[in-house]
Amino acid sequence: MENTKFYVTAEELSEAYGICLSxxxxxxxxxxxxxxxxGFIIVQGKVPRRYVEERVYGYAPIGTLNDDLGxxxxxx
Length: 76
Fold this sequence. Notes:
There is one protein chain. By secondary structure, the protein is mainly alpha-helical. It has a domain at 7-46. It is built from three helices and two strands. The protein is globular, with a radius of gyration of 14 Å. The protein starts with 6 loop residues before the first strand and ends in a 19-residue tail after the last helix.
């Protein structure tokens, strides 16, 4: 398993994206609200790293195919 943390904090977002800490907290609240609306359990002040990558960079979740390439079934 990689040594990467599962959750991203506001401090990490602030440093990684060159934004102020208050903007990073606002972004975390927004992303957590999206996850909560989808029925996921959230942790205040932190957001899953994969979700940040998906929303910021447009990455598809690992292990799935893009709908353009297939029907969203797991990759082999």
